[in-house]
Write the structure tokens for this entry.
Amino acid sequence: MLFGVPLQALMGQLMLGIVNGSFYAVLSLGLAIIFGVLKIVNFAHGAFFMLGAFTAFLLAQHLGANYWFVLFLAPVFVALVGMLFEWLFLRRLYGLDPIYGLLLTFSLVLVLEGGFRVAFGSSGQPFSTPDMLTGTINLGFMVLPLYRAFVIVAALSSCLVTWYVIERTSLGASLRAATERPDLTQAFGINVPRLVTLTYGAGVGLAAFAGVLAAPIFHVNPSMGSSLVITIFAIVVIGGLGSIKGAIITGLGLGVVEGLTRLFYSEFSSTIVFLIMVLVLMLRPAGLFGREEG
Amino acid sequence: MRRWLLVLSTIGLAALLLVPFMPSLVYDIFVMKALCFVLFACAFNLLLGHTGILSFGHAAFFGTGAYVTGQLVKEYGVPTDLGILAGGLVAALLGAVIGALAIRRSGIYLAMITLAMSQLVYFFFLQAPFTGAEDGLQRIPRGVFLGIIDLRNDTALYYVVLAIIGAGLWVIWRTVNSPFGHVLRAIREHEPRAVSLGYPVARYKVMVFTISAGLSGIAGSLKAIIFQLAALSDVHWHTSGDVILMTLLGGMNTIFGPAVGAAIISTLGHYLDPFGGWVTVITGVVFMTCILVFRRGVLGQIEQRFQHRSEPSTSTEVHAEPDTSNSPNGA
């Protein structure tokens, strides 16, 4: 017993919180990267998360594709779709008020979600956990389902890899340059429009990766991303879109807080993130990791 | 231009007044629903078009109006007129609170904050004991308006709704054309300058949030009375998205453009109903087209056409072209 609750329950919710937090971290990270370079808040982030899960579901269910293959292929496919979307539509809005980007990606949500609802209905499709990752590990103080452990490791490694690419490679250096001064970066001979397209692809690819990871945990359904993306927005307001580290830490932290809330005040578990956002806005309007926007 | 507008609005008004007498042509309940969205969209546009603030959570005010009125009229037997007033007032209060929080950030962050806040309101109505969760508040009695007009009669209800919507639109028109409205446009055009001129910008923003939310609440209250139902879809973010689409489609830089947009989208929704799930997809495609090629909206486009004709020497198109010099493309 700890704080008046069984240790088993505490650990279980903590675990679930970390799993959700890893999804939050990957999603807000993608949102932050896209915002950094495109100056657009990608409302369709949840829709791409859903698209990733559905792609995985369709590949696995209808073509019998191997899970590891799907885990790689679905994000790549979604990244291509995202790049096409950026190339065809989104780039027409650069230089306009950023709210148009938000609205265009919102309209994409309507199209994608509506389309999938027509095709597959609103109810969830089950997605089985890969054989290799079924089963549990007994940690002594709790029983940890293997797949959940895998999700946490995979999600956090993808965050780490992204952070490494952006902060430590020359590609990342050009990306950061394009974030600060696109015109000068272009003058140095870097193909900025292509970099922008790639960034959007990478961002939504990350979302799709999270979607594939989430598929065996949640049911695969058309609206699985839209409620998530609103929570992600609140997380991004709390953490600020400016920093990659901030996005990861805030995402993970709020997942844990949410899990613990479910244990202690379950009626607040769906709203706690928004309530924290209100608190942060009152005390530190720029966000925990944010710079004051101009 | 002015004369044309006068002729058109007279015809429109006459048509609206005659609706209950043409049951074979139009369904009056549908027109009432469209009218609610007309007021909702025009109220929303006080923020987007006239102050330059994108609220992505206006369904919170619309739905709060609907639930408050529904609950008061149904459970506490409050007269319908007072119920609608209370719906508007509570929504206005909520608008003041959410507005005060949201304006601590600007632009894109503000949109995300309002969306998150409206999700908070959504969860409140989902979980509160009196709202009937997924079923919504059903069988709200229409009651008697001002003690004499029996609203169970659809025709009587229609004229009451028309009168209230008309009054709401008049308030919006007065607000936009008042000194207060001029300050709002100053904030939209150049906020730092408005600040440096000594205007308490934050207070102005909260005030316009309150007015906009109050009128949106009244629109929601009316919808609850008309359909005798306050449902979760009224507070859902889809409704927030719909009202943005209506406003953009109609023309956000006009006063009554959003009304045109609301009429178009309501009509689309009404006649596309048999297509079921496709409505969302079609709405999405209309939305996309609107943002990509049609940012002035219907009324904005018409207005521009007229201006073009009257002063052919200056092309307004030039000013409208996006400034691409600081785009991320660097092109």
Q: What stands out?
A: The radius of gyration of chain B is 20 Å. Residues 312-331 of chain B have pLDDT under 50 and may be disordered. Residues 27-235 of chain B form one domain. Chain B touches chain A through 49 residues (CB under 8 Å).
